[in-house]
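Entry 14. Ran structure prediction on the chain below.
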Amino acid sequence: MSGTRPISETRVQANGLTFAVTDWPGAEPAVFLAHATSFHARCWDQVVERLPGIHCIAIDMRGHGRSDRPPPPYPWLAFGEDVAAVAEALGLRGTLGVGHSKGGHAVINGAFLNPSAFAALLLIDPVVWRRGRDTACPRR
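Output, structure tokens:
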């Protein structure tokens, strides 16, 4: 749960879906946070609390949290397309993209598709596999 820091949730239309985006106001450049499978934007609350005064934005990925839940499967490349489209809709430029697990995969692909949105990436245990492989979930 968030402390005394102001927080807002908005709806963003992008890539044919509606995404829930949580926003903590602060100084630019912003930090864009992408969660792992089965999580949602608010899993970043404690991280954001440790970034006082920095603008932070967290997305509920498709099929997660309060974002649209189209019928599966959810190809992993679609998560990157969503990140790129949401970043574009928000007008992000020079943002730090942070992704955990599937969120790492999504910000890598989002940065590839929308390079001006991201100045750098911080990847936490990202899911990355060889080129040309896209499945709803990587096989182990």
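The chain has a mean pLDDT of 92. Will compare against last week's run tomorrow.
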